[in-house]
Design goal:
4% helix; mainly beta; 13-stranded antiparallel beta sheet; six-stranded antiparallel beta sheet
Length: 426
């Protein structure tokens, strides 16, 4: 009897095993290979890798400091790099500090992600210039060639970026306002022509009552005409334009030097002073562009010509039309890379926009004036807005919030505000 029961149980088990489906096994992506680290600037280094694995949907990158645990969270856990990426720039590095930089290939199924691969331990050392031989005569350095046409109000700076590429920057009258702004630039073999502002417009109204009601909306100044966008009648005017090279005025022609300054003074209307009998300027902004050491430094000082209420002001921007992704870095070292519209919390000090072709523009904001964010929402200090594929634009938030919902800044007649920072092209 026991024998019969044993035979029946064995037969049942055999039947179950024959009818069961075989277990599906996942195939893990091959790990990235050939990892190398290259020093870029005074604060950054680039990790590069190769991969021939099929099915990669994106990449996570890792940075492990000297005192960090072995397992760290990806820097871009929420926004993986695109599948085509083969490099990532790590910023905010400290001299003499060692880092382990890693990368991981991602698949549609998390179980198929590759292992995390790290480059050899890297100790960050800022790039230095070779020491001069005291026995040799000093060599005159002319890092920038400046071409000015005072009548046309144009200036072109031609030099070398901090990463060694050819860099050409042009300022001239653009937009419906024909005010002097950043017109175009070339970095390496990529060129871009502006069709929106880099120095922010103003969302403001004069405090005094005017006859304008339903039309009293939108931005003025920058690239914005009376229709609130890039069209309509001018809402700003360049009142003066002056260029100097190494503190010597340069009204026309081409000269070389180490430091070039272009000072532009604009006057701007308010939303409720841009039409008809009420049309008048209510604010004056002095924009100083300084080209030096491969950077374009910017300082904006604005003075109220009458009492005005400013609801929204971005100040420093990275123009749209070429940016496929953005990286933010806050003053506490937090980094965030995004490929879609995003509001960045914290106090952002650097915002970098990346093109499909590989060049980047960094907008670095100084911690002074409006750059302290004391007049802006506390929810975020910078943001990205995408207006189409690869058409992201970056903004700092210096007054109010992007919806105009925070308390406006009332600037009395004669009062001034300012901010400063620089652009770096790579």
């Amino acid at each position: 009897m026991k024998y019969q029961i044993f035979v029946l149980c064995a037969a049942a088990l055999l039947a179950c095993s024959c009818s069961a489906k075989p277990r599906e096994t996942s195939r893990q992506l091959a790990a990235p290979a050939d990892l190398t680290v290259e020093t870029l600037t005074e604060t950054s280094a680039r990790l590069q890798w190769s991969s021939e694995s099929e099915g990669v949907t994106g990449w996570w990158v890792y940075r492990r400091g000297e005192n960090d645990p072995f397992h760290v969270t990806p820097l871009n856990a929420d926004e993986p790099l695109p599948a085509s990426a083969r490099s990532y720039d790590f910023d905010g590095l400290q001299p003499g500090t060692s880092y382990s930089f890693g990368v991981q290939a991602l698949a549609g199924n998390a179980a198929e992600n590759s292992t995390v691969t790290y480059a050899p331990l890297y100790t960050y050392t800022p790039p230095t210039s070779p020491s001069a031989d005291p026995s040799e005569s000093p060599v005159e350095v002319t890092p920038v060639s400046v071409t000015v046409n005072e009548k046309a109000r144009t200036v072109r700076f031609q030099g070398t970026s901090r990463s060694g590429e050819r860099l050409v920057l042009s300022l001239g009258p653009v937009s419906a306002n024909k005010t002097v702004q950043i017109d175009e630039y070339t970095i390496g073999n990529e060129s871009f022509r502006s069709y929106t502002d880099w120095i922010g417009p103003w969302h403001m109204r004069t405090v005094a009552a005017t006859g304008q009601t339903e039309k009293a909306w939108g931005f003025t100044g920058g690239w914005h005409g009376s229709n609130g966008d890039g069209t309509g009648d001018p809402t700003a005017s360049t009142r003066s334009f002056a260029v100097s090279v190494d503190d010597t005025p340069c009204p026309d022609g081409t000269v070389s030097g180490s430091r070039a300054v272009c000072m532009v003074v604009n006057q701007v209307e308010a939303a409720n002073t841009k039409f008809g009998d009420d049309k008048r300027f209510v604010l004056e902004e002095q924009v100083t562009y300084t080209y030096e050491d491969g950077r374009l430094y910017v300082r904006v000082q604005a003075q109220a010509l009458e009492d005005v209420s400013i609801a929204i002001y971005y100040g420093m921007q990275i123009a749209g039309g070429f940016c496929t992704r953005f990286t933010f870095r806050t003053e506490d070292g937090t980094e965030k890379t995004v490929t879609d519209s995003f509001l960045m919390p914290g106090r952002v000090r650097e915002m970098t926009g990346w093109s499909v072709g590989g060049h980047s523009v960094t907008a670095a904001l100084d911690d002074e004036g409006l750059g302290t964010f004391s007049r802006a929402t506390r929810a975020y200090s910078a943001l990205v807005q995408y207006y189409g594929e690869n058409n992201g634009k970056g903004y700092y938030m210096l007054i109010g919030d992007k919806e105009g919902g925070s308390s406006a800044l009332v600037l009395k007649k004669g009062e001034t505000i300012f901010w400063s920072g620089y652009y770096e092209f790579r």
